[in-house]
Amino acid sequence: MKTNTSKKSENIDRKEAIKKIGDYGKYAALTAIGTYLFLNPKKAQAASPSAPGEHF
Amino acid sequence: MFYLKKWKNKTIVWFEASNSYVVFDHFITELIQKLHKNIPLFEIVKECRFLLKVPQRTAVQFVLDLKKLLHQQTKKTEACLSIDDDNPKVLNVYYSKKYYQFHNIGISILFETELLELLIHPKFKHLERERKIKAEFFYQLYFENDMLVFSKGSSVVGSWPKDEKHFLQGKVSMQLLADMYKKPEDEWMGIFHASAIENGKESILLLGDSGNGKSTALALLHASGYKCLADDFVPVDQEKNVFLFPAAISVKKESLQTLAPFYPELKISNEYQADSKIFRYLAPKFLNYQQKFTCKALVFIKYDAKTDFKMSSISRIEAFQQLVPDSWILPQTKNVANFLDWFLEMPSYQLHYSNTIKMIDHIAKLFNDEL
Prior knowledge:
The structure holds two protein chains of two kinds.
Chain A lengths: L4 H8 L2 H9 L4 H6 L2 E4 L17
Helix pairs in contact in A: 1-2
Chain B lengths: L1 E6 L2 E6 L4 E6 H11 L4 H12 L3 H19 L21 E7 L2 E7 L2 H11 L12 E8 L2 E6 L2 E7 L3 H17 L6 E5 L1 E5 L3 E6 L6 H10 L3 E5 L2 E4 L3 E2 L6 E4 L3 H4 L11 E4 L2 E6 L10 E11 L5 E5 L2 H8 L3 E3 L3 H12 L3 E6 L2 H12 L4
Parallel strand pairs in B: 5-6, 11-18, 18-21
Antiparallel strand pairs in B: 1-2, 2-3, 4-5, 6-7, 7-8, 9-13, 9-20, 10-11, 10-12, 14-18, 15-17, 16-17, 19-21
Helix pairs in contact in B: 1-2, 1-3, 2-3
C-alpha cells in the first residue's frame, strides 16, 4: 500500500495540511506502508486572512 | 482520549489532546487501538507482519512509528501564558464607541484606536445605530503590553499578538454570535470558512480557499433571489442547523464590475485594503434572525476564467481534507461525534465556473434535487 497524502494535499493547495504532513514525515515506516492523513482544524474561530486591518 | 469513526475503508480518528483528525486505513486503526490497550508490542508486531506481509524489521519499525504517533497525539500540551485573567483596562481615552443592533440585541463596542475600529467596524457598519441605543453587552478592544485585547463587560475574553488579528476578529464574531442568539460558544458545533445561502427551506454552504470566489458567488446568488445567511463565518449549531450571521459580504475589486449592476450601492461604498487585496463591503438584505436551516450540500467552489462550467460530486474524504483545516470545530468528544455524523451524511460537490448563469442554474438544481 502506498501513501499519497502529500500528493493529495498539494492538489488541494492547503498550506496548513502540507505543513502538518511535513511535521509527521518523521514516521518513515508508517508513511512507507500505510496511508494516513493529518488534519488540524483551526485552534480558534478566525476571520478570513483578507479581512481589513493589515497596517499593524 | 480519542474518538473513532469508520467510513468505508477508512477510519477517522480524532485525538482530543492535539485536536487532530487523522484518517487511517482500518488496519492501522486496529493496531492503534491495541497499542492504546497496552497489548504487548511483540503481539502487535506479529499481527502487523501477518497483515502486511512484511519482514520482522519493517513490522517493528512500523509499530514503533505508530506508538510514537499515538504518544505525540495524546500527550497533554502546556497551557499558553496569557493575560486573560486580568481585569479589563479602563479606557478613558478612546477613538470611537459604536452601537450595533443585532435583531433585538444592542451591543456597544469601544475601540481604543482607529486601527482597532478598522478590524471590526466595516463588516458591521450596516448594523450601526447612530443614536445611542440601550446596549445589553459592552465590548472593548484595546492594546495592552503590545497585545490586542478583547474584553466584554468586566472580563477579558482574550488577547492575541498583533500578527494574530484574524483570531481576534474571529473571537469578536464568535462573541457577537453567542450574544445575539443567547447561545454560548460550547453550544455551537462549528464555524466554517464558507458562504451560506438559503432558499426558505434549506441551506447550501459554498467553500473554498480565500480568493476562490465564494463571496462573489454568494452575492450573485443573493441577487438572483436566494437569501444570504453568512459570508466568511458560517455558524452551525449542535442540532446541525445553519444560522444567519449578519456580517457584510466582502467584495473584491475584481468582482465589482460583475456585481455592480445588481448592487449599485457598491459604486459609492468605502474601499478597504488588506494583504494587497482591495475590496468593499456589501450589506446583506432581508436579515432574518428567526429562521435556521438544515444544510443540503457542501459545494467547493472556484471561479476559473478558463472553465465555462464544471460540477462533479467529490468523495467525503476529499471534502474532509478541504473542510477541516479551514474550520473551527468545538473540540469536545460528543461534538466531534456529532460533527462527523453530520459531515459524513453531507453530499459534497466541486464546482468550477466562469459562466455565472450556469453556476446559478446548477445551484437551483441542487436545491430542487434535479442534479
